Structures are given as structure tokens and as C-alpha cells.
Fold this sequence. Notes:
three-stranded antiparallel β-sheet
Amino acid sequence: xxxxxxxxxxxxxxxxxxxxxxxxxxxxxxxxxxxxxxxxxxxxxxxxxxxxxxxxxxxxxxxxxxxxxxxxxxxxxxxxxxxxxxxxxxxxxxxxxxxxxxxxxxxxxxxxxxxxxxxxxxxxxxxxxxxxxxxxxxxxxxxxxxxxxxxxxxxxxxxxxxxxxxxx
Length: 168
């Protein structure tokens, strides 16, 4: 961003909070771009001895990941993860447990991961967000080295499966 979103003055770089940040030099405005990470929820979606992985539009054909989504204003993470499962694969889920919190620096996100159990029924993808899905046996799941892959690795370990990271 080159210009202040509040007053349209060209932004400058200055130290704020111990880091170089984009700031508005207009003393009447005072805008600071803190560039805070966005909170995201992720679901290890278990069903019938397997997990559901999804593929977003624009991903390489071989990439599948956990169901994810942004928290909405006023929403708690536990409700958000259940909403995202319903929106993305069309099925209700029940919250089993919290897995952990993971940085995803590449996307400036903070991931809050949960294990959910997905209800029976046909999966109906939200085709505006997703291209495909796979259901894989838990013992066949392999984590990846960033983002939600870290949560999957921790969950697999909690289930007794120690897995090396996939090389993407």
C-alpha cells in the first residue's frame, strides 16, 4: 500500500512498536499499518476412519489441504471452524478438540486448528472456493512443512502416527 487508506497521503516508513512500519506523515491522521496477521481456523475433518482434504482453486492439481477459513467479526474460533466445514463441504460437524495455534508467515495468518468429526452424507463442495476433495485413511495422511500441515502433523502424532513431512 502506497497511500494512507484514511486520508490518501503518501505513506512513509517509520519506527513504530520496535519495527519499521508504513505510517501516514500527516499529524492530523496518524494512520499506522500494523500489518497484523489474520486469524484463520483449520479443521482436521475426520469421518469413517479417514480425513477429508480439500483443494482450492488455483492450487496445483496434486495439492490438498485442511478445510480452512477466516474468522468473521464477532465469531469465536470454535463456531467458525464448524461453519467453515458446513460451508465448504456441506456437512455438519462436531467439535472434538483444539489441536493448536500455528503461524503461517507466508500468508500473514495465525491458524487455530481443531479436530472435528464430520457427519455422514454426501460431500457437496462450495465450488466458488474449492475444486476437489479427497477422503484418505488416517494412516495414509502425510503432513506438509508449513501452515496447516503443522497442525496435521501434531494431530497425527496424537493419534499414534509419526510422519515425516512431504517434500512439496
